[in-house]
Amino acid sequence: MFKDQVVWITGASSGIGEALATQFASESARLVLSARREEELQRVKEQCIGKGLSSSQVLVLPLDVTDHQAMPGAVDQVMTAFGKIDMLINNAGISQRSRCVDTDMTVYRTIMEVDVLGQIAMTKAVLPVMLKQGSGHFAVTSSVAGKIGAPLRTGYCAAKHAMMGFFDALRAETAGENIKVTTITPGYIKTSISTNALNGDGSEFGKVDNDIANGMDVTKCAAVIMEGFRKGKPEIPVGEGFEMKALMLKRLFPKLVFKKVQSMAPQ
User: Fold this and answer.
1) Where are the domains of the chain?
2) What distance in Å separates the CA atoms of residue 41 and residue 87, rounded to the nearest whole number?
């Protein structure tokens, strides 16, 4: 299904982005790998070559999603290399671990710039290409936090709620243009997301949450996402813990979920 498809992944240097890159490589897709750390992207490229791709089938394209002015040039590089963009997976992101009262506004701005405006800018840069092609597929890695508010993550939850709204609206706008939109809704996945999260003063949290440490294996997570892509699911929930049940419970018994997340707040 994905053979020779051109798949551009942001946040491809680790975690879900890295795991998806190797999954697509196993299915002979052509890949564009973007993140800020070029050396890590080169490492992921070598993994993709190990899955059967040639070096020319993997483009390493370092990119900071907050640098909106760099995006048109990046799109031009992809088009020069491959001539099309079949899929853009907006996976770059950063989280937070701090109470609202202790969080500086600069932290909220950083989260919004990376998790919201960066994804919107990437999508807007690629959208004209897909409209001209008459086909394409946008995906975004949102979160259960895009459906349920959780303590110590006010900025992160706000950003992920925004992403769910933006891409749901984009799906409606582009359905008649043969462009698909998928929102990915992970729960706790074993990645470095909590380690790289921001404290209230903007410093790095630097620790692994217990829930993350006991979460779903990232390779298994990527396999679930790939199966969702194959089935054409507009939304792909992925995870194994109570947080996945909470997605449904919030619709039916919102007070129960509110009480549960209140119990997670530090005293």
Assistant:
1) 6-262
2) 18
Residue by residue, DSSP assigns 154-199 as HHHHHHHHHHHHHHHHHHHHHGGGTEEEEEEEE-SBSSSTTTT-B-
For residue 160, the one-letter residue type is K
pLDDT tens digits for 2-28?
Answer: 999 999 999 999 999 999 999 999 999
Pick the closest to residue 21 from 60, 77, 64 (CA basis). Answer: 60
Q: Hey, which bits of 94-161 come out as E strands?
A: 136-141
- The CA angle 261-266-267, to the nearest 5 degrees, is 115
pLDDT, tens digit, 9 for 90 and up, residues 180-212: 999 999 999 999 999 999 999 999 999 998 889
Q: Whole-angstrom Cα distance, residue 25 to residue 45?
A: 9
Is residue 188 among the annotated active site residues? no
Please count the other Cβ atoms lying within 10 Å of the Cβ belonging to residue 245: 12
Exactly one of 8, 24, 108, 156 is catalytic; which is it? 156
75-121 pLDDT tens trace: 999 999 999 999 999 999 999 999 999 999 999 999 999 999 999 99
**Is the CATH number 3.40.1160.10 carried by domain 6-262?**
no
Report which of 199, 211, 210 is spatially closest to residue 246, judged by C-alpha positions: 211
The three-point CA angle 243-245-249 to 5° equals: 110
Give the per-residue pLDDT at 260. Answer: 82
